[in-house]
Design a protein that fits this description.
Elements: H1 3-24, E1 30-38, E2 41-48, H2 51-55, H3 60-73, E3 78-84, H4 92-104, H5 109-122, E4 127-134, E5 142-149, H6 156-161, E6 162-170, E7 175-183, H7 205-212, H8 240-243, E8 245-248, E9 254-257, H9 259-275, H10 283-290
Length: 291
Amino acid sequence: MASERKIVADKIKRVLLKEYLMKETQRAGFGGVDIQRTPMGTRVTLIAERPGLIIGRKGEAIKALTEAVSSKFQFNNPQIEVQETENPSLNAQVMAEKLANALERGWHFRRAGHSTVRRIMDAGAKGCLIIIAGKLTSQRHRTQKFKAGHIKYCGEPRNLFMRKGFTIAKLKPGVIGVTVEIMDPNAKLPDEIEVLEMKLPTQPAETAAATEAPPPAKGAPISPVPGEMPEPVEPPTEPASATVEEGKNEKGEKVKTGKVAEKRLKKVLREAKELGTEMDVDVETKKKETK
């Protein structure tokens, strides 16, 4: 057998096994099946709402089911495990079975659809889509949809986060198909972005006290903030009378005294030394004379 035909035959066998288990465990609330091949054989994991009905007293029911699977589908050493659903209201297959049972009991399709949507959304699902197709109100086929929340119809988010369940309801007008799709409540979509707040470095106590201090009163001097360099203060300029003063000597002539006269005297002495002449002039005596 070619590899392609072998893959197709294996897939068909898995679908037939799923339909068989769905029919046999309908009373227990069938929630899905997972089939895995292992070196020891084939592991079949059943998800059910009431696993006790599948196991039976002393495990008799699950032993009979294992033998039936081995004889009908020729699986190599099948091992059936049963798990309980954590939240039946978020299991698409379980809710599809419940909706089909409600339609078979005589519920109106609109009442059954809206009540199922409300129950799924109250359980915490992000979105829900229910499709009921068949002879609902007349002999002509029609489709009715019930939806709520956020739903993905295509792309990778649909394959990752949308859970799908399908079953049929057998009524007098004919068979009605029931499809339930539920978005996982823990789904993180690509457009959901979380912005984190940047934490500022903590300030020392002195700086914090300075920043929290009240503003100074009007006209009061502003004290420098610690950590900041004070502005340079220019020295006060001396008045002209301090540098240049005018007086009169014994002859009555006006003579300039002070720092300007002293600078001029030093300049004259420097020029005399450069010319090579000796001038025995005492600066202090000159100051007294000028005074």
